[in-house]
Input
Amino acid sequence: MSVIKPPSSPDLSKGMERPATSRLWKGPLQVIVLLLLLIPIVVIWQFFNNRLNNTDPTVAGHPLSNPQIHLHTMALGGKPGVVYLGTHFGLFTSTDGGRTWPQPRGVLNTLMILTIAVSPKNAQDVAIIGRPYSGLDIQGGIYFSTDGGAHWQRSNEPAGLSPSAYLFTVLAGTAGEGHFYAFYDYAGWFETRDMGKHWRAITSGTVSNMLTPSLLTDPTNPDHLWLGDQGLFESQDDGSHWKQIPVNPQHLYAGFFQPAVVMSSTDGGSSWQILTN
Output
């Protein structure tokens, strides 16, 4: 007896398959839709963030008139009457000892100005450290000006800088125009003699690992440097070699404003001797 097989039902799922082009477009379309949703959110956030953190002067010619302003630093220019104010909303400059401030808004007003260094060799050469206070796609770092702060150019970073390095301060050097030093936490000290176009490391090893050290330059010899924080170090060859100087904890110095004298003690402060009059 033969077995009669029932007729097979048609496979309807094959006709319902989506075209290959539809599957190809699904991923990019989802990304585009997501971006279209995120962009307005970012724009709105940035708008309200800027409004809340707006530190524009409320009175023209008075940089600190806004009660929300933060004065981070101040520096005297190399010419009489020049004063720089580094604020939470850019850099302000006065040329008459602070009596007038012509800028309605600070220069580089998307940045907090944290450090100002003026070259002793050329008062027009100025370096600052600026960090963004809000917003996106704003680069912080060292900025240089060759015209007393009217125009600024962001500096290159030292080559091979570690991602963990943190820019801490910038100082003016005495070797000539364009000579500056920069210190990075977890990276050490670097030197430029061309306004930040090129940098050279002047510390290495233990000296580079010291956090927030102080650098002192000899005004009569730019290659003679002192470095201090966790000990005192000296270099006679512009940082190529360093030697540690023994420090006597009993040897102290004190300075007085009125009368203007510097005194020294070699016994931990039990007795003092005037060094300068």
User: Anything to note?
Assistant: The helical segments are 20-52, 206-209. The chain has a mean pLDDT of 83.
